[in-house]
Design brief:
Elements (H helix, E strand, L loop, with lengths): L1 E8 L3 E7 L5 E8 L8 H15 L3 E9 L2 E3 L4 E5 L4 E4 L1 H9 L3 E5 H12 L8 E5 L7 E4 L2 E3 L28 H4 L1 H12 L5 H5 L6 H25 L3 E5 L7 H11 L10 E4 L6 H15 L2
Parallel strand pairs: 1-4, 4-8, 9-12, 12-13
Antiparallel strand pairs: 1-2, 2-3, 5-6, 6-7, 9-10, 10-11
Helix pairs in contact: 1-2, 3-9, 5-7, 7-8
Length: 297
Amino acid sequence: MSHVIAVDVGGTGIKCALLDSELRVVETAQSSTPKGDTDGDATVAVINQLCQEFAAKYEILALGLAVPGTLDEPGGVARWAGNLQWKNLKIVELVKNKLNIPVAFRHDVRAGAYAEQKLGALKGIENGIFIPIGTGIASAIILDGEIRAADGYAGEVGHIYVGSSRSCVCGRTGCLEATSSTLAISTEYSRRSGKNLSTLEITKLIGEDQIATDVWNEAIEGLANSLLNLTTVLAPEVIVLGGGLAESGERLISSIKDRLYPNLTFQRKPEIQLAYFGSRSGTIGCGLIAWELVNAK
């Protein structure tokens, strides 16, 4: 049986999955994302190593690759990816040359939105927003049934100003990503408490640990303010939240609703939902675009 490989490159980890033609995940593998890899060589080497483990056992027809940042998707170029320290990197060419395999390329968040639109929480939605909250924060915007990319620049909500004094990878201070990402939450908690805990561990301390409660509330305030702006401008029917922070489940949803809904006056009130595929939306989206590349031949 033939398969495709989905590769989702994040600021912290690289997730690979082997998918069959029914988009069932057959096997998975992951590794840490190399730090300071400005030329992409170390990242591509990790991708190659993970993929070769699959290729030794299965026939692989194509690879779906997703990365963060502002992308030239048709050209296969990562124009800027702050958490990866990439600028104008021809990442698709590097992967093709190393693995000798057809590559379908998509922004990681738009890949996740594509999966949710085709099969998940955004199915049938004409106007919606998908926001996975992980090491970074970005969004995919669906208007009139189409995922809009604006030449690869759209959706970088992580760099909306939310008023904090924290430094961001983009070079500014006060960005949403520097306040409300999983990395921001764990980093700030560690700075204040001296303890190194995961974001999920921190959320379990809310209400018992004042530092955890404060850091969480600051993160939610930033998210709610950003969602208020997006709701006012884009009028989504549904806002779908994914990524690592969504593992906190109903706590995340209820916290955002409590802060967002009272501030809506004339705006359309969006439903706030968790991603159907959880933290695997990007993986499923990569599988979809890989199979589309295979079937287009």
